Amino acid sequence: MNTAVLISGGVDSGVVVHQLCEQGIKPDLHYIKIGMEGEDYSCSAEEDIELCRATARKYDLQLEVTDLQKEYWERVVSYTMERVKRGLTPNPDVMCNRLIKFGAFEEQVGKHYDKVATGHYATTIEDPDGTIWLGTAKDPIKDQTDFLAQLSYEQLRHTIFPIGHLPKEEVRRIAREAHLPSARRKDSQGICFLGKINYNDFLRRFLGEQEGRIIDIETGKVLGRHRGYWFHTIGQRKGLGLSGGPWFVVKKNIKRNIVFVARGWDTQLQYGHDFRLADLHFITRNPWEQTDAHDHTEGIHPIQFKIRHVDHFMSGTIEWIDEDSDAEPNGYWHIHSDAPIQGIAPGQFGCIYSSDARICYGSGEIGI
């Protein structure tokens, strides 16, 4: 099988290379370069690439560095800035997977291979009729299906996840025993393109600063000042500079550049049970579709879901609301959580799973 591996220099993709070679597959290795170079916002890939080269030498494989910086900034950074300016909370990593790692790379390189392997903690599940679904990882703490939930069906069909059935501890053990160059490297943190750059510094470069008020939503009292609503997200606690807390961001007024906060760990203003998805993207198909009924989304269905990258799933229900209005011209998906949810931020992705959390159906942006 003609196989490519997206290698990052980390332990996970290194073990993918090892596992494939153990199976007699000699993959080509591809490092995707997306960090911008130059000025104060350079994202050095030297250490990553050197570890990738060491892995390639160890297994006598070809390594190619694919520069997708231009595509990343045209597609993902533009998406991020557009959402932030609207007061939303974007997820660049989700869109990086859809548009770059499984998008631009596929268009330029991946299409020449039978399969492309990655180090994501996810699996694929195949029905008897050959239909493929995105499955969750064996290690729920490391599960990364929420980052993959915007993939198209064709992207999923072309991808394999060789370590998705392994717990992280086992991946580390394999790496040590195989003496992989990346065996003891720590897991990467933060947004994929920023590296060591502070996210607020990045926003400041593109959006600048604009002083505004921080207001207690319950009393209307002005508690302090902020430097722009785009630096704050719903559910945020740190970085507000307020005393007498804890304080949480619970609302933003974009036109007036006001950040509203509420005090206390148990304030109900930062919790909710319901949110809507206007643009739910199904990777494979709508699992509740009724081919013999006119209304293919009728009914309330049990699900598991996530609204951010966390180590657990939440239980709830999903229902299609057929509402024809200016705001929702085609209706929307209504998600109800069994337990209260902290910090439901418009713009975040709501990721929808089967009731047993075995299959990831897809995701959509949380609406206002």
Topology:
Blueprint: E1 3-6, H1 11-22, E2 28-33, H2 46-59, E3 63-67, H3 69-85, H4 92-108, E4 115-117, E5 123-126, E6 132-135, H5 145-148, H6 153-157, E7 159-160, H7 168-177, H8 199-207, E8 212-216, E9 222-226, E10 247-253, E11 258-263, E12 271-277, E13 281-282, E14 300-306, E15 314-321, E16 332-342, E17 349-353, E18 359-365
Parallel strand pairs: 1-2, 1-4, 2-3, 4-7, 8-11
Antiparallel strand pairs: 5-6, 6-18, 8-9, 10-11, 12-16, 13-18, 14-15, 14-17, 15-16, 17-18
Give the helix proportion (percent range): 10-25%
| CATH architectural group of the largest domain | 3-Layer(aba) Sandwich
- How many alpha or pi helices? 8
How many domains is the backbone divided into?
3
Portion in beta strands: 25-35%
Order of helices and strands: EHEHEHHEEEHHEHHEEEEEEEEEEE
How far apart lie the N and C ends? Answer: 46 Å
